[in-house]
Amino acid sequence: MNLPLIQAVRIVQIIFGLIVLALAAYVISSFSWWSSSSTVDFMLFLGCWTSFVAVPYLGAAPIFFPRFAHHFVIPAVEVITMIFWFAGFIALGAELPSPAYCTWSACHALQAATVFGALEWVLFCVTTYFAIVDLMNHQRSGESVQKTQHNAHLGV
Known about the structure:
mainly alpha, 4 helices, MARVEL domain-containing protein, Marvel
């Protein structure tokens, strides 16, 4: 995949992560009954994980720190983050009341966090797909290089 396109997706992932982080922090600070929910705490964690750990690593390591961008670690971080977002937005959406009963600002903030969490999951599905394709291409090229080197040593 084209590098500038991936970097644009990474920027959107950080922005959506910060939005979920802000919405979850707002709900936690509102002193509603949602402020003690472990699901909201998990969404706060996901915003921090995505914005400050996963996406900076996924975006910067292959370019600036190639020694830390191991070809198995990049897809692993992508898959873990994708699973986290799936679990987070599903759990939060399952706890929310129906829209007719969601009339206070903390509930509206959680509805928005659920939508942005779902969009974040879709973005991580896309980037995970490309990370796995890149891993498969890397393994294929690694196998052919090993076979070529092995055959070259047989003839010596």
